[in-house]
Design a protein that fits this description.
Number of strands: 14
Oligomer: single chain
Largest sheet: 8 strands, antiparallel, barrel
Radius of gyration: 30 Å
Helix content: 40-55%
Strand content: 15-25%
Number of helices: 18
Length: 609
C-alpha cells in the first residue's frame, strides 16, 4: 500500500477540510430545545376527554410532536455523548459485536493496521453481513471499529480494498464523528424514522379531518404546509452534515490508500436493496467515486466544504416558500402580499438570527482549531493531501455575502400587533403574523389621516353547532359567578403560538358572570360580552360576542364563539377567539395600511365562586 510522505519537519500536516458540520448541527438543534420543549408542554395540557371529543386539537398536537422529533433524537444524542460506554454496550448487543480473538491471523492484521495509525482504536467483530465496517465510541477518547463478516473475506481476497475501508472509518475519528455518527447514531436513526413518523402523525390525521369535513381542518392544513416542508428541511440539514462527514472521510482514505483499491472498496459499499433509506445517510456510490477521483482539485474541495452551507440555504428558501403558502392559506391576502410578508420575516431571521453567523464563525475558527480538535479525540494519524486555501477562502464568501445582503438591505420588521409600521421608500412587505402592509404616497399632496373601517370577520373560523336546541330564556336562578381554574388547551389557528399563549395567560386570571338572561361577561380576560344564542337539551349554551375598539388611526375587532357546559359548581368553556386589527397611518406623507389577524381555540375550566 502506498503511503503519502510526511512533512519535511516530521510534524503532521495541518488539517484542511470542511468544518465539523455534524457538531455544528448538534449545537444548532440544542439551541432550539428550550423553545420546542416549552411548545410541547403547552400543547400537551388537557389531553383528556376534550381531545377525545374533538380530533382537531389532537391533530395539532400530533403536528407539534412531528416538529419536536428532531429534539427528541437530540436528547438521545446528548445522552449518547455523555454515556459513550452505554451506547457501546447497546451497539455491541444489537449487532453481535465482540472482541477479536488473539491468534486469528486476519483479525490480528486488522488490529495492527488500526492501532499503528490511531492507537486509541479497538477492534470488534460480528458475523453479520449487512455492512462492511462502522465506527462507534468505546469511551470518551476511545474509538471502536466494528468489522462485519464481509470485510474479513475482503481482507483475504483484496487486502488493499479492505484497508481503504478501514482508512475511511479512521477518517471519521479526526473530527470526533464517531460520537455523533456511526453505529447507534441518533442522527442516523432520525433520518431513518423521520419520513414514517411524519406520514403517520401529520399527513394521515389532517387527511382524515379533511375527509370528515372538520371545520378546523383547513386551518390546520396551513400549519401542515409548514410541517410538510419541515420534512425536507430536517433531512437537508442532517443529511448534508452526514454526507459532508462521509465525503471528508473518503478524502482521507483517497490520500492514503491505493487509488484503484479505494474504487474497489467504494463499489463494495453499495447499499443493500433492503435499506432504501441508506442513500440518505450515506452519499450514493457514484457521488463518492466522483469525489474520490477529484480530491486534489479545488472545485471538488469547494463543493465539499460548501455542501452543508448550501443545504442550510435551501432550508431557508423552503422556509420562505412555506411561510408564504401558510399565510396565503390562513387569510384572504393575495399571493404577492403573502410573499412580501414571508420575505420580511426571512430578512429578519437572516439579520438577527444566529444561523449564518454560526456558519461564518465556524469557517473563521476551523483552520485554528482543526489540529487541536483532532487531538482531542485521540487522533495521532498522519495528515495527507493538502487542502487548497483558495478553495476554503472561496467557501467563506457564501455566508459572508448572505449576511452582507441582509445588513445592507432594509425590510419592515414582522409586526405582531396592529401598530404602525416603520415607513420605507416604497411599498413594503407585510408583517409575518397574518397581516398585510402597504404604503402609498401622492406626488403632489399629503393625504390626511382617517379612521379605518371596522375589519370583517375572518373567513373559515371554526364554530359550534347544536343539534337539539331551544331558544334562550330568562331564568330566575340569579347571576352565577365563576373563576378560571385552568386553561386546559391552547391551539393557535392563525398567528403565532406566543400570541395564543398571551390570550391564555389573560384568561387564566379571569372571573366570569353568567346572568339570568344568558349573558356571560368577564373581568380581566379581554373577552367581549357573550350572549347566548341557543341552549341544548342538556343545558349546554352556545354564545357569541363581538367588540370593536377604534382610535384615530386603527380599528380592532374581536369575535368570540363559545360553548358553555355547566355541571354542578363547575363549568367548561370552549372558545374560538379571533381578533383583526386594521391600522391606517400617514407618516412623511405616505399612507400605511396594516392588517393583522390572530385566532386561537381554547378550553377553559371554571369553578364556581
Amino acid at each position: 500500500m502506498s503511503q503519502a510522505p510526511p512533512r519535511a519537519d516530521g510534524r503532521p500536516a495541518r488539517l484542511w477540510g470542511p468544518p465539523p458540520w455534524l457538531w455544528v448541527t448538534l449545537g444548532l438543534l440544542a439551541a432550539q430545545v428550550p423553545t420546542l420543549t416549552d411548545t410541547l408542554t403547552w400543547d400537551a395540557q388537557g389531553l383528556g376527554t376534550e381531545h377525545g371529543r374533538d380530533p382537531a386539537p389532537l391533530t395539532a398536537l400530533a403536528q407539534t410532536l412531528v416538529q419536536l422529533l428532531p429534539t427528541l433524537f437530540l436528547l438521545a444524542g446528548g445522552l449518547a455523548l455523555v454515556l459513550p460506554r452505554v451506547r457501546a454496550r447497546w451497539v455491541e448487543r444489537h449487532y453481535g459485536l465482540g472482541p477479536a480473538g488473539i491468534g486469528a491471523p486476519v483479525l490480528d492484521q486488522m488490529r495492527g493496521f488500526l492501532t499503528d495509525r490511531v492507537p486509541s482504536t479497538e477492534l470488534r467483530v460480528t458475523r453479520r453481513r449487512d455492512m462492511l465496517a462502522r465506527v462507534y465510541p468505546g469511551g470518551g477518547r476511545t474509538t471502536r471499529v466494528g468489522v462485519f463478516y464481509p470485510l474479513v473475506g475482503l481482507w483475504e481476497s483484496d487486502r488493499e480494498a479492505a484497508e481503504a475501508v478501514l482508512l475511511h472509518e479512521l477518517g471519521h475519528i479526526r473530527c470526533g464523528e464517531q460520537h455523533v455518527a456511526g453505529l447507534g447514531s441518533p442522527f442516523v436513526a432520525l433520518v431513518k424514522a423521520w419520513p414514517y413518523v411524519f406520514a403517520v402523525f401529520c399527513v394521515l390525521p389532517v387527511g382524515l379531518l379533511l375527509a370528515a369535513g372538520n371545520l378546523a381542518a383547513h386551518l390546520l392544513f396551513a400549519e401542515t404546509v409548514l410541517v410538510v416542508l419541515a420534512l425536507p428541511k430536517v433531512l437537508l440539514i442532517v443529511v448534508g452534515a452526514l454526507w459532508s462527514a462521509e465525503l471528508a472521510a473518503d478524502r482521507y482514505a483517497a490520500g492514503t490508500a491505493v487509488r484503484a483499491a479505494q474504487w474497489r472498496a467504494l463499489n463494495a459499499l453499495a447499499p443493500s436493496r433492503h435499506r432504501p433509506l441508506g442513500r440518505l445517510y450515506h452519499p450514493p456510490v457514484r457521488v463518492r467515486l466522483w469525489f474520490a477521483a477529484r480530491t486534489d482539485r479545488p472545485v471538488a474541495q469547494l463543493l465539499l466544504v460548501l455542501l452543508w452551507p448550501v443545504a442550510v440555504l435551501v432550508e431557508n428558501l423552503l422556509d420562505l416558500v412555506g411561510g408564504a403558502a401558510a399565510v396565503r392559506l390562513l387569510g384572504d391576502t393575495t399571493a404577492a402580499e403573502a410573499m412580501r410578508k414571508a420575505v420580511a420575516l426571512s430578512h429578519e431571521q437572516l439579520v438577527s438570527g444566529s444561523l449564518w453567523w454560526t456558519v461564518l464563525g465556524a469557517f473563521a475558527v476551523w483552520p485554528l482549531l482543526a489540529v487541536p480538535w483532532a487531538r482531542l479525540w485521540g487522533w495521532r494519524g498522519r495528515e495527507v493531501g493538502g487542502f487548497s486555501p483558495a478553495a476554503y477562502a472561496g467557501s467563506v464568501l457564501l455566508p459572508a455575502l448572505l449576511l452582507a445582503l441582509g445588513l445592507l438591505t432594509t425590510a419592515p420588521e414582522p409586526a405582531s400587533d396592529a401598530t404602525a409600521p416603520t415607513p420605507s421608500d416604497s411599498t413594503g412587505p407585510a408583517p409575518a403574523d397574518g397581516g398585510t402592509t402597504g404604503a402609498t404616497s401622492s406626488p403632489s399632496t399629503c393625504p390626511s389621516p382617517s379612521r379605518p373601517a371596522a375589519p370583517r370577520r375572518p373567513e373559515g373560523l371554526p364554530s359550534f353547532e347544536a343539534s337539539d336546541t331551544a331558544a334562550p330564556t330568562v331564568t330566575d336562578d340569579g347571576t352565577r359567578s365563576f373563576r378560571t381554574v385552568r386553561v386546559a388547551t391552547v391551539t393557535p389557528l392563525s398567528g403565532s403560538l406566543g400570541q395564543a399563549r398571551s390570550v391564555a395567560t389573560r384568561l387564566a386570571h379571569a372571573r366570569w358572570s353568567l346572568a339570568p338572561d344568558g349573558t356571560l361577561t368577564t373581568e380581566g380576560g379581554e373577552v367581549p360580552v357573550l350572549r347566548t344564542t341557543s341552549v341544548q337539551g342538556d343545558g349546554t349554551r352556545l354564545l357569541r360576542g363581538e367588540e370593536t375598539r377604534t382610535t384615530d388611526v386603527s380599528a380592532t375587532t374581536t369575535w368570540v364563539d363559545a360553548r358553555l357546559v355547566t355541571v354542578g359548581g363547575t363549568a367548561r368553556l370552549e372558545l374560538v377567539r379571533a381578533a383583526t386589527g386594521v391600522t391606517h397611518a400617514v407618516v412623511n406623507c405616505q399612507e400605511w395600511d396594516s392588517t393583522v389577524t390572530t385566532a386561537a381555540r381554547l378550553v377553559v375550566d371554571l369553578g364556581e365562586g
